[in-house]
Amino acid sequence: MKLGSKLKRLRLARGYTQEELADRCDLSRSFISQLESDKVSPSVETLERILRVLGTDLKHFFSDEQKKIIFKKDERVPVYDLPKGVNIEILMDAVEDKELDAKIVELEPGAQTEQEGYHDGDEFGYVIEGSVDIYIDGKRYRANEGDCFYYSGDCVHYMRNPGKEKAKILWIQTI
C-alpha cells in the first residue's frame, strides 16, 4: 500500500475532511491532498505530526503485522483474587490499543462480584446461562438467560447470582 492511500484511509476512519486534518496539523489542505495522491513526500517530522493527529505513530503505521483476529479458547487468561464463587476469564489478551475489554464471568449460586466505584467507560453484559441481579447505585435490576444489560461506569455497581444454578455472562467494558 502506498503512503498516501494509507494516510487517506486513516483520515477517513477518523472522520476528518482533508481541511480538518490540515487544520489540526497546521498544514495546507492542498498539501494533504497532494500527500494522499502520492504527489509529495512529507518530512519525518511532518509525517509524525500527521500520524499523532490520526491516533497512531510511525511504528504502527509502517508495521506490516496483521492484527490478531481470532482468540482461541485455550488462550483465555484467568483473573485471580476474586470473591468465592466468582470466575472470570479475559477473552482477548495482549491486544494493543484495544478500546474494550471482553470477559466471561461465571457466578456460583449466591456469589457476587466486587463492588466497583465510578470509572470511565460503559459496560455491557449478555446473560448466557442463569440469572443475575445487577446493582447500580443501590437499585437492583434482574437479567435472565438471553437478556442483556448496558450502563455507564459512572455509578457504583456489582452483580450477584440470586439463583440456584451457575450464571454465565459475557461482559464487555469500554476502556
TrEMBL record:
The keyword DNA-binding applies. Keywords: DNA-binding. One of its GO terms (molecular function) is DNA-binding transcription factor activity. It holds the Pfam family HTH_3. One of its GO terms (cellular component) is cytosol. SMART domains: HTH_XRE. Signal peptide: none annotated. Residues 7-61 form the HTH cro/C1-type domain. It comes from the Bacteria. Gene3D superfamilies: Jelly Rolls, lambda repressor-like DNA-binding domains. This is Cupin. It comes from Fervidobacterium pennivorans. The lineage of its organism: Bacteria, Thermotogati, Thermotogota, Thermotogae, Thermotogales.
